[in-house]
Amino acid sequence: MPLSLKRQLLIWLLVPLLVIMPIAAVVQYRLTFIPAKLELDHQLGDFAIAIASFLKVDSGKIRFEMSPETEHLLRTDQTDTEFFLVLAPNGKVLAGDAKLNTSEEDIAVGELRYIDKRIDGRKMRMLIYGVTCGPNPCQVRIAETLLKRDKLHYQALIATLVLILLLGLSTAGVMLFAVRHALRPLQALRGQLADRSLDDLRPLDAPNITSEVQPLVTTLNQLFGRLNAASEAQKAFIADAAHQLRTPLTALQTESELALMEPHPESMHATLERLHYSASRSAKLANQLLTIARTDPSLQIAADFAPVNLKDIGAWAANEWSHHAVVAGIDLGFELASAILSGQAALLQELLSNLIHNAMEHAGKGAKVTVRTYGLADNSILEVEDDGPGIDEEERQKVLQRFFRGRHAKGNGSGLGLAIVNEIARIHSAKISLSSPEHDDGLLVRISFKRQENGNSFKPHS
Ligand SMILES: Nc1ncnc2c1ncn2[C@@H]1O[C@H](COP(=O)(O)OP(=O)(O)OP(=O)(O)O)[C@@H](O)[C@H]1O
Ligand SMILES: [Mg+2]
């Protein structure tokens, strides 16, 4: 199965996002944490410089004098514990906490060296500051616990995660929306093509299509145009041929019928019957082909639609078919209730004629055929029911196709009757269902039209 364009776009957009996001998170974290950490180091430096100001060198003698009050004033930190140590150049402790004297460090005057140390089992940030003290420098060492730094680290981490998560999710959401939005015209195009019947060769309507897809739509429309022209020419040829053939074939049918009724040699009888059979079959075929040509969707038949009452169509059929039914030994009945729809009466008559003809022909002598019309809340219904052999489930879809005849088909048909019914139903946006009658064998053909409220229906053609 080919990869979908949507999936490909999303992969190309989201995979780099998944790579970029962690990198952005690290950069963001460092940008938040490092300046704050430098600021804390800077405060430690200020503390060291303040302590150093109490170092005095008096005629070669080094003294450190800081009162406990001053020391108290200098210790302003509320969070961390701070320690200090003042060392003479020879390493002698002048003041402060001797536990900061962890290692010997060479330091230049004015240098501030920051190191992370473990003192007394606790992790600390230590600063060693070189102070001028005669020929060699003294050292002021300051150390503080890491509570502020840990808190800062934690806050920077949370802030980064929240920011990156929000950014990542919203970017992914926007990408998803953008891809869907960009592909929507393509989906609309697919919908248009999927819903099309084989006869619908109108150009595609794609107003919002992107410039990349436009050439494809143009090419498809050109193809539709060429197919349409070819199909029109073919239909026009069939219509012309059917029209030209109909008159001589009908004449041939009548003549052969007359010849059969006239006295004729016995030896000619079988030939005359075959001639009559072929002439009737050909005349019927020409008529059916003409009907199909007349139901062409390009003829814009819907423009001529008017309110029609199915009850009137049924009454017309009763008049038209009752005599044939009696001759064929069929019990043809009508249950007609008012059911209005918007349509073309002549086509609806043709539709009903085909259904009655089928029921009489395929159900055969002695069958009971009922034509029903009635209205439902939203639909106007036409039904033709017979108690013949019916149509097998697997054949029910196929019988609507042109030139398909069932396994048990009778008569001299060509398999066009139900295709014509299907075309006429489609023109009227009606639904056809073929089923078995509820309590019997046989066939129930139901055509469900959209109901129209307007009661001023046109009388069908007689
Ligand atoms: N009332 C019915 N009972 C049983 N089978 C039917 C009935 N109506 C149609 N069929 C089956 O469906 C097939 C197709 O019907 P359709 O009307 O299209 O063609 P046809 O009747 O064979 O020929 P044509 O209508 O061209 O004279 C028939 O050949 C037949 O097998
Ligand atoms: Mg038929």
Q: Could you explain the architecture of this structure?
A:
It is a single chain. With 462 residues, the protein is α+β, with helices and mostly antiparallel strands. The chain has three domains: 5-153, 2-Layer Sandwich (Beta-Lactamase), CATH 3.30.450; 214-294, Helix Hairpins (Orthogonal Bundle); 302-450, Heat Shock Protein 90 (2-Layer Sandwich). 50% of the residues lie in helices and 19% in strands. The protein has eight helices and 14 strands. It has helices at 5-52, 68-74, 147-194, 214-261, 266-294, 310-328, 345-363, 417-427, and strands spanning 55-58, 61-64, 82-87, 93-96, 112-119, 122-131, 138-145, 306-309, 331-336, 340-343, 368-375, 379-386, 431-435, 443-450. The strands form four sheets. A five-stranded antiparallel sheet has the order 4-3-7-6-5, covered by helices on one side. Strands 9-11-12-14-13 form a five-stranded mixed sheet. The protein has a two-stranded antiparallel sheet with strand order 1-2. A hairpin with a 5-residue loop joins strand 3 (82-87) and strand 4 (93-96). It is rod-shaped, with a radius of gyration of 49 Å. The two termini are 57 Å apart. Magnesium ion binds next to helix 7.
Give a short overview.
The chain has 462 residues and is α+β, with helices and mostly antiparallel strands.
Number of domains: 3
Q: How is the largest sheet built, in terms of strand order?
A: 4-3-7-6-5
Shape-level CATH architecture of the largest domain: 2-Layer Sandwich
Secondary-structure-derived class:
alpha+beta
Described by strand count, sense and barrel closure, the largest sheet is: 5 strands, antiparallel
Number-wise, the strands total 14
The geometry reads as rod-shaped
Q: Over all CA atoms, what is the radius of gyration? A: 49 Å
